[in-house]
Design goal:
Radius of gyration: 27 Å
Number of helices: 12
Structural class: alpha+beta
Largest sheet: 7 strands, antiparallel
Distance between the termini: 73 Å
Oligomer: single chain
Number of strands: 46
Shape: globular
Helix content: 10-25%
Length: about 775
């Protein structure tokens, strides 16, 4: 069987098989949209491929086998008109594909104990050593998340330091069989074509993969604040009053997303006046409270109501506002317009709230038409859109690109996300922000993503953490695990524990429900203690804003996610290989959500926290310190999330904010320094709103802490680079932790001599704080003698 090897980059090798006697196929039509253009190869490739006995073997430069096929590829012809069936042990794939008459099977060697990671947004596992999974995206509602996903992706990384991206978008399955030592990939359509990626570290794998498929741009800074959605949608006065209650209770908030029934019909993008009689006033009232407004939509244009479906869903899920279950929600003029111009991938797709045309976002004209419908809403002050329900495309759909329905199905999320994101980018220089549910390889370039619908249970908390960690490995830095999930009554304990975890996710949102349906999902539900807990962790999120901004920049530059699997910064530590119940926020914070009920007598939960080797880990809330490489038995009080800071690090925090204004700048920073030293930080800054950073309008400031001879020195270098609205002076507070005694002397100096400062010592907290003014384009040094 002819086989072609192509080095794409120094660390990636593409392998393509074709049947005997046939030419190599052209690239899949979608590949040019997903795979980024690559510069000419100037380095010597680290991977080499060869065919031995009809099977591919990939080795790295030292001769070590990275990946090996254990059988020649099977490229099978089919003649079934209605279905393609590919059977594997424990799994059957059915891809109804009249246009697809070929299937592919690839079988690779798995080493003993080898684990695989990735595969997209999977809730049921992080590390996989056995079993099967199916790549066929669907609306994976909460009960289905044990075996289905909204965003399956044909890519995985191995514990042995390599990754594979399969260039086949058809419905597919993987089967891991450790007894036979094999991994089998089977797809319901043609394409025996894959890319091998070599790290060997996970950070290097992420860097190599995202160099091919893209890295996330920066999100607007306000999007790092808190958002909320009411479900089902309540009337205009209720929305404004709930926001006002946030402000009265001093619980920070930055955005409200209206649920489906903000709209009159699906989809004509006109307001449902029964709920929102004065939408312009709504936008103005929210803006007056410094809250942005987002709107949800789906990719359907209804031509038929499904009243029985609507009635049943209302009985089961209570997802309709009072009154509209009998309303006519067809958008017939819009449907006729799109149908006549060929804008639909399918003209009669069934979904939650009707049946209609599902827009073909591979068609530039259809995408432009849809974005044109959004434009008046942007112009009136809508800040962003939540693009929901991208998993419904039927198997007999079409595509302007020529994709078959089954192939288009798993790619739909990518094109849907791209269309909405690029449509927003065309408005002006603002940073686009979307809020998608379904996704695909390459869609990390179009943030952000929410992880679908869950319930307020410990099991669902854990499942969303797994899903987020899986997505993070594939470059998706900005995702949400909704606080409390979509629906379901919370208990006081779950209310607290869910908030502690999900309010620190890369993007944060919670769901409220009308109190008549469920009065347990507001921040102030369950009384003053729960309200204080919610406020405490929202406030922590806002204080961490400078740190989240740093992590976004790092994701943009390297592909590393914001919330990271433990194994990402624990090379060679086998204890971290399967840890999926704790995570690293960047490389400096370790969070270990409480995922089991507390002792009913004390309210305290015991949490086992596995600590990476190296520097000690300091408790964020107390003066406790744990040795690196050990295990902490953490006693988590009801209002405490196990949160540890890596020693030898600087953690930048900002002031408490109630919202993040476009004008917000990092004029006040607290630099929390944790021993042992040295420690360092490169602080990134830009305007937080526009895409000027992509044109070089940003600054970086190097900060270092050292200790010798009883003197601790903190050096803040002059900023490199800049941007037009960069502050000239920052108020800095250097906070040294685990400092039992007060300093004998403190000096703050700059280019023109000594600078004034204020010094304080808190013996109980074991901190010393030094506050001073720092001219951004100058260097400042702080010396503390002990």
């Amino acid at each position: 069987m002819p086989t072609r090897f192509l080095a794409i980059t120094a660390h990636t090798l593409r392998i393509t098989h074709t049947p005997e006697g046939e030419p190599f196929p052209a690239d899949p039509v979608w590949l040019a949209d997903v795979l980024l253009p690559q510069p000419p190869l100037t380095e010597r490739p680290t991977l080499e491929g060869a065919v031995v006995d009809g099977r591919v073997r990939v080795t790295q430069a030292a001769g070590q086998v990275v990946l090996a096929e254990v059988a020649p590829p099977e490229l099978r012809r089919r003649h079934r008109r209605r279905a393609v069936a590919l059977d594997l042990p424990a799994v059957t794939i059915r891809g109804e594909a009249e246009r697809s008459d070929a299937g592919v099977r690839l079988t690779f060697r798995l080493a003993p104990g080898e684990g695989l990671y990735g595969f997209g947004e999977w809730f049921n596992a992080f590390r996989r050593e056995r079993g099967a999974l199916r790549l066929h995206n669907r609306d994976a509602i909460a009960p289905m998340q044990g075996g289905h996903t909204y965003s399956g992706m044909p890519v995985h990384f191995s514990s042995r330091g390599y990754g594979v991206w399969y260039l086949n978008a058809h419905p597919a399955a993987f089967n891991l069989d450790p007894e036979r030592g094999t991994l089998t990939f089977t797809a319901a359509g043609p394409g025996a074509d894959y890319v091998v990626i070599y790290g060997p570290s996970f950070a290097e794998l992420i860097a190599a993969f995202t160099a091919l498929t893209g890295r996330p741009p920066l999100v607007p800074r306000w999007a790092l604040g808190l958002m909320v959605t009411g479900y089902p949608q309540e009337p205009q006065p209720v929305v404004t009053e709930r926001v006002a209650e946030h402000r009265r209770r001093a619980i920070p908030l930055d955005a409200v997303i209206l649920d489906y029934h903000w709209e009159e019909r699906f989809h004509n993008f006109r307001w449902r006046r029964a709920l929102f009689p004065e939408p312009e006033r709504l936008i103005a009232d929210l803006a007056g409270q410094a809250v942005r407004l987002g709107l949800i939509f789906t990719p359907f244009v209804n031509h038929r109501n499904r009243l029985r479906q609507r009635w049943l869903l209302q009985r089961l899920a209570a997802n309709l506002p009072a009154g509209p279950w009998r309303a006519d929600e067809r958008a017939l003029p819009e449907y006729a317009h799109a149908l006549a111009r060929g804008y639909f991938a399918h003209p009669n797709t069934l979904w939650w709230f009707g049946a209609g045309g599902m827009v073909d976002f591979t068609n530039p004209a259809a995408a432009a038409w849809w974005n044109g419908l959004l434009r008046p809403l942007y112009d009136r002050g809508i800040a962003f859109f939540k693009n929901d329900d991208g998993e419904y495309l039927p198997p007999d759909a079409t595509s302007a690109l020529g994709l078959s329905g089954p192939e288009h199905h798993n790619l739909y999320g990518f094109y849907y996300d791209r269309a909405i994101y690029t449509g927003m980018a065309a408005l002006d220089d603002r940073r686009p922000f979307i809020y998608a549910r379904s996704s695909g390889v390459g869609a990390q370039r179009y943030p952000a993503l929410f992880l679908g619908d869950q319930k307020p249970t410990f099991a669902h908390m854990h499942a969303t953490l797994r899903a987020g960690l899986n997505m993070g490995l594939l470059g998706f830095a900005h995702w949400t695990a909704d606080v409390f999930g979509l629906d379901g009554r919370t208990t006081p304990e779950l209310h607290r524990r869910y908030a502690q975890y999900a309010l620190l996710a890369p993007i944060a949102r919670y769901f409220w429900r009308p109190p008549a349906l469920d009065d347990t999902r507001l921040p102030w539900s369950h009384g003053a203690a729960n309200e204080a807990n919610f406020r405490k962790f929202v406030e922590l999120r806002y204080r961490l804003l400078p740190y989240y901004a740093q992590l976004g920049w790092e994701a943009h530059r390297t592909g590393l996610p914001v919330l990271r699997p433990m194994l990402l910064h624990a090379a060679g530590d086998d204890r971290m290989a399967a840890v999926d119940d704790q995570a690293l926020l960047g490389d400096r914070l370790l969070l270990a959500p409480v995922l089991t009920p507390a002792d009913p007598g004390t309210g305290v939960a015991r949490r086992r926290v596995v600590l990476p080797a190296g520097p000690p880990w300091h408790d964020y809330w107390s003066t406790a310190t744990y040795a690196g490489g050990g295990v902490a038995d953490y006693a988590a009080a009801p209002d405490v999330l196990p949160l540890l800071v890596r020693g030898s690090s600087i953690l930048p925090l900002g002031p408490l904010l109630q919202h993040i204004a476009d004008s917000h700048r990092f004029t006040e920073l607290a630099l929390h320094c944790y021993p042992p030293y040295p420690a360092s930080l490169v602080f990134y800054d830009d305007d937080g709103c526009t895409r000027a950073y992509a044109r070089g309008e940003f600054s970086t400031t190097a900060i270092e802490v050292s200790a010798a001879g009883g003197v601790v020195r903190v050096s803040v270098r002059a900023a490199e680079g800049g941007y037009p609205t960069q502050p000239a002076v920052r108020t800095l507070v250097v906070v040294l932790h685990r400092q039992v005694s007060a300093p004998a002397a403190v000096e703050v100096s700059g280019a023109t001599g000594s600078r004034a400062c204020t010094v304080s010592h808190d013996p109980a907290a074991q901190t010393v704080a030094v506050a001073f003014e720092h001219p951004v384009i100058e260097a400042t040094e702080v010396a503390l003698a002990f």
